[in-house]
Amino acid sequence: MKINKIRDLTLVSIDSNKTMVIACDSCGSIGMKEGDALKVPSIFVGKLTLRVAMFEVLSSGANIVAITNAVCNEMEPTGKEIIKGIEEELECAGIDKIALNGSTEENFKTTSTALGITVVGIVDNANLKVNNIKEDCLLISIGMPKVGGEINLSSKDEDIADYDDLYKMLETQGVFEIVPVGSKGILYEGELLARNNNMNLNLVDNMSIDLHKTCGPATVLIAAVSHEAYENLKTMKRVRLIGKLNKN
């Protein structure tokens, strides 16, 4: 069995045709408990934490088969609300009939909200979009960097990347690799993507987006795309050309 760690993904070779893709995310001190630094309804803790790990696995081209949630709080009321958020996020992503398992803390009183999520997917190796850039191409982004209270939780935030954006890119010919961007920002993930594919990243001039700002719960997706794919995708809202990727 061959295991590779690439970016925030663990890839486990199942056989010559399939790979298991694993991603995880954690969230602490965000919720409605007395010790939480950011007061947010628990349902959004579940939604946004799952979003990050699901974006990672889905971006690889994998189909999600199992999710675990480690709720470091009591089931009533915190755990129940977090799990409700997880179920709502799965519905937003159009995912059902998966193994969903978890645990809560019933032995001790907790004063801060904490959650760990693990997502497992399976992908045909022919469809795996990890270290998959074979030619010079373009780097684009979808979504605006946002974190914490900047994200509109009262309704769908039109500024951030969503599942429709991700599925559209996965279905578009010439999209070689997709990476969700989190706390380290667009430039960090873009340069890491370039290095992992033995490419150089050359940024465009007069960038209209902050490449260093945290993107919180994966509010931005970046993608390495062909010129033809860019022409097909650039009419989507929030799409920006970040730079060019050229072979070393």
The number of strands is 13
Alpha-beta content class:
alpha+beta
* Strand/helix succession: EEEEEHEHEEEHEHEEHE
Gross geometry = globular
CATH architecture of the largest domain: 2-Layer Sandwich
Explain what you see.
It is a single chain. The chain is of the alpha+beta class. It contains 5 helices and 13 strands. It has helices at 42-59, 75-92, 163-171, 185-196, 227-233; strands at 3-6, 9-13, 18-28, 30-31, 38-39, 63-71, 99-103, 114-124, 137-142, 175-181, 199-203, 220-225, 239-247. The strands form 3 sheets. Strands 1-2-3-8-6-7 form a 6-stranded mixed sheet. It has a 5-stranded antiparallel sheet with strand order 10-12-9-13-11, with helices on both faces. Strands 4-5 form a two-stranded parallel ribbon. A hairpin with a 4-residue loop joins strand 2 (9-13) and strand 3. Helix 1 packs parallel to helix 2 (75-92). The two termini are 31 Å apart.
Short key terms for the protein model shown above:
33% strand; Alpha-ribazole-5-phosphate synthase; 248 residues; PurM-like_N; 5-stranded antiparallel beta sheet; 6-stranded mixed beta sheet; globular; 2 domains; alpha+beta; 60s Ribosomal Protein L30, Chain: A; Phosphoribosyl-aminoimidazole Synthetase, Chain A, domain 2; 5 helices
Concise synopsis of the structure shown:
This is Alpha-ribazole-5-phosphate synthase. It is built from five helices and 13 strands.
